[in-house]
Amino acid sequence: MSKIIAINAGSSSLKFTLYAMPEKDVLANGIIERIGLNDSVFTIKHGEGEKFQVTEDIANHEIAVQKLLDQLLALNIISSYDEITGVGHRVVAGGEIFKDSALVDDLVLEQIEELGELAPLHNPANATGIRAFKKLLPEITSVAVFDTSFHTTMPKVNYLYSIPMEYYEKYAARKYGAHGTSHKYVAERAAEMLGRPIEELKIVTCHIGNGGSITAVQGGKSIDTSMGFTPLAGITMGTRSGDIDASLIAYLMGKLGITDINEFVEILNKKSGLLGLSGVSSDMRDVETAAENGNEDAQIALDIFHNRIIKYIGQYVAIMNGVDAIVFTAGVGENSAPTRKIIIDGISWFGCEIDEEKNNVRGVERIISTDDSKVKVLLIPTDEELMIARDVVRFSEKH
Ligand SMILES: Nc1ncnc2c1ncn2[C@@H]1O[C@H](COP(=O)(O)OP(=O)(O)O)[C@@H](O)[C@H]1O
Ligand SMILES: CC(=O)OP(=O)(O)O
Ligand SMILES: [Mg+2]
């Protein structure tokens, strides 16, 4: 039986899902966390709720891939490496080059590495994951699936910044967005769930995880999204600031005696957002708990978090001149009922109303607005891995 594997390599983690083909049944999925740190945690879920977990030091992504393949063998999930005929990798930045997924060859891999400036937290790790697989399974179909591809339909009016035009022309300085694979998946599911052709729908998709972005999907196409040149822009995130006034950077660098701009960008990427505001954690669960226990900084962090999402939804309703559906997905969007309720309550003027009972769930696909709600609100668990697997199949057939 042939199998394909979808890989989402983060800077410190490697998530995977293994599928049996052609049915695309999930055989196993899991994550290796804390790569490069002590006590990496390696978890595989498989079979009927079986779970393998071990804590050991895993120094880098190549070792992580080796351990993953060996453990799939040891658990009898595969009987030899050869069973894996294709691999798909999530890559965050594809720039203006990749309007679609691509078969990975040396040139493509080089381009992914060169695009590292557009996703400094993600592309280098994605490339490392690709190299690790190439080394261990050189012959299989290898496909890169880009977060930015879905957003390549954005019109100039939304992707250009109001800076000298030659910076776009010479240096491709523009908005690229991210999480496109997820926005596309949930927008298509929303149309199916509503039983309407996507071509006639205006949808705002809210991918709210550790990183988060909001997208305006009109007629099935992304027309605007909250992330920018890199995944730093847009809404408040776990550790990322989202949008700020660029002049503040110059001002604060002076105050803090920081001379290297990269050092400041790192603060905006890794020490800001929920973490920076609350001083508690980047993890929504911790911030919600701290706020419940009376921590005022945690409460204002949550208030800002909700406020920025509401503002982006408002912008997108405005530029589409209407909205049929609002979709919540990713870690926070799928699991935090309070987040969804506060946001929808904040935009009730648009004609949407949450059904508290329907909203009181985690991670299930359903409509969570009242029957009377003019604008439908949907909870849709994302499945970036399934989208990646589909592209591996599409490219294997072409190959
Ligand atoms: N039950 C929950 N309630 C609130 N937030 C949750 C819950 N479960 C997970 N989350 C949040 O989801 C976020 C992680 O989302 P995820 O989509 O996995 O992130 P990423 O893919 O960017 O690493 C974290 O902030 C986490 O706290
Ligand atoms: C692009 C991005 O922010 O991805 P993630 O949410 O997985 O960090
Ligand atoms: Mg994610």
UniProtKB/TrEMBL annotation:
Mg(2+) binds at residues 8, 384. Substrate binds at residue 90. InterPro entries: Ac/propionate_kinase (IPR004372), Aliphatic_acid_kin_short-chain (IPR000890), Aliphatic_acid_kinase_CS (IPR023865), ATPase_NBD (IPR043129). The active site is at residue 147. Its cofactor is Mg(2+); Mn(2+). The record marks 179, 240 as: Transition state stabilizer. Pathway: Metabolic intermediate biosynthesis; acetyl-CoA biosynthesis; acetyl-CoA from acetate: step 1/2. Its main location: cytoplasm. It is an enzyme of class 2 (transferase). SUPFAM superfamilies: Actin-like ATPase domain. It catalyses: acetate + ATP = acetyl phosphate + ADP. It is found in: Cytoplasm. Catalyzes the formation of acetyl phosphate from acetate and ATP. Can also catalyze the reverse reaction. Belongs to the acetokinase family. Homodimer. PANTHER family: ACETATE KINASE, ACETATE KINASE-RELATED. This is Acetate kinase. The gene is ackA.
